[in-house]
Amino acid sequence: MKTRHLIIALLAALATAACGHTKRPVGEILTVDELLSTADGRIGDTVSITGLCVNTCGHDNSHITLMGSDTTQVIEARADERMRSFDPQIINSTVTLEGVVAEQRIEPSFLDDWEMRLDASLEGGQGNPAAVAVFKEQIRELRDSIAARQARDGKEYWSIYRLETFACHDAD
């Protein structure tokens, strides 16, 4: 009987750690839109954000996609080593996450290398020209975005922001 109670307590603790049953975060809670509009100045900061979970990683639930006011306002959240994974049941739920803002930069040198590899994939008739054309269009769009950012902000890279998450709360 004691073993059964121990197992139940352990399962309850795991469910609490996954998401939705923990204490509410303290301090200011940002929307996804607010975080994305200020993310450049928040890299490395611990923040709380709220949004709609629109996707969970089907492999190991180690990351989710949180959406703000529309489909252009999205951020990936990754469970850190303490949290490990998200509860897959949070999809289509509004959640509040706590974590550290991180940035991945896409620089012209990366795009140059990517384009070179795509060209090499077509040598000898082995590649897929239609797929290469799609990727080259994406590269062109990224180059245009980088040029616009450089003209606007003086930064010659494109940023992709994410949240390294250590806590997840049910916001409903």
Task: Fill in the keyword field for this structure.
single chain, 172 residues, alpha/beta, five-stranded mixed beta barrel, 37% helix, 29% strand
Description of the molecule:
This protein is an alpha/beta fold. It is 37% helix and 29% strand. The protein has four helices and six strands; from the N terminus they run αβαββββααβ. It has helices at 2-18, 32-38, 108-122, 129-153; strands spanning 30-31, 46-56, 63-67, 74-79, 94-106, 158-170. It has a five-stranded mixed β-barrel. Strand 1, helix 2 (32-38) and strand 2 (46-56) form a beta-alpha-beta unit. Helix 3 runs antiparallel to helix 4. The longest helix has 25 residues, at 129-153. The chain is globular, with a radius of gyration of 20 Å. The two termini are 36 Å apart. The relative contact order is 0.20.
Form type: globular
As a whole number of angstroms, the C-alpha radius of gyration is 20 Å
Q: What is the overall number of helices? A: 4
For the biggest β-sheet, the strand order reads: 2-3-4-6-5
Helix percent reads 25-40%
Mind describing the biggest β-sheet? 5 strands, mixed, barrel
How much β-strand is present in the residues?
25-35%
Helix and strand string, N-terminal first? HEHEEEEHHE
Q: Indicate the low-confidence ranges by residue numbers.
A: 1-18
